[in-house]
């Protein structure tokens, strides 16, 4: 999602203002339909995995190491929930306004509030990279 949100933030959304008024409604509808098929399932998987990961980090286990602290797992869950919150409170309403035609205020709100989602997903990915590096370190230590 991090790569996708950066693409949307830096490439896709800025192009909205360059679509002519005669084409904007169709362009926006196609954008919304196509991007939803990519974004919605991944966001769902992300939220479910954040919930599951948080649950697992709070379970005592001697057989498997806790790679993230419960507080880090909770942070990941809060980041995912934050993305859903920003999406519901800002992105969806802005897109609904834009569905009727280009609206400069709705566009600016979409563009500015999407930076929140971009930041949240970037932080989440950095935590994910740390997690994967810990898994790799454990695998190397176990193989020696």
Mean pLDDT: 90
| SSE class | mainly alpha
Strand content: under 5%
Tell me about the largest β-sheet. Answer: none
The tally of strands reads 0
Task: List the domain count as a whole number.
Answer: 1
Radius of gyration: 19 Å
Succession of helices and strands: HHHH
Runs in which pLDDT lies below 50 for 5 or more consecutive residues are: none
How many helices? 4
Distance between the termini: 35 Å
Fraction of residues in H or I helices:
over 70%
What sort of overall outline do the alpha carbons produce when their principal axes are compared? elongated
Descriptive account of the structure:
Helix content is about 85%, strand content about 0%. The chain is mainly alpha-helical and about 140 residues long. It has one domain. Helix 1 (about 1-15) runs antiparallel to helix 4 (about 105-144), helix 2 (about 20-55) runs antiparallel to helix 3 (about 70-100) and helix 3 (about 70-100) packs antiparallel against helix 4 (about 105-144).
Write the layout of secondary structure elements.
Layout: H1 2-16, H2 21-57, H3 70-98, H4 104-143
Index terms:
144 residues, mainly alpha, 4 helices, 84% helix, elongated
In short:
The chain has 144 residues and is mostly helical. The chain has four helices and no strands.
């Amino acid at each position: 999602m991090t790569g996708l949100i950066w693409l949307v933030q830096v490439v896709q959304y800025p192009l909205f203002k360059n679509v002519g008024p005669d084409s904007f409604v169709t362009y926006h509808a196609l954008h919304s339909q196509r991007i939803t098929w990519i974004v919605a399932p991944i966001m769902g998987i992300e939220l479910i995995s954040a919930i599951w990961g948080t649950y697992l980090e709070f379970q005592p286990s001697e057989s498997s190491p806790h790679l993230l602290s419960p507080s880090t797992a909770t942070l990941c869950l809060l980041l995912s929930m934050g993305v859903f919150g920003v999406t519901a409170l800002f992105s969806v309403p802005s897109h609904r306004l834009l569905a009727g035609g280009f609206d400069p205020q709705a566009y600016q709100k979409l563009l500015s509030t999407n930076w929140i989602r971009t930041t949240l997903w970037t932080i989440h990915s950095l935590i994910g990279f740390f997690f994967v590096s810990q898994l790799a370190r454990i695998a190397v230590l176990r193989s020696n």
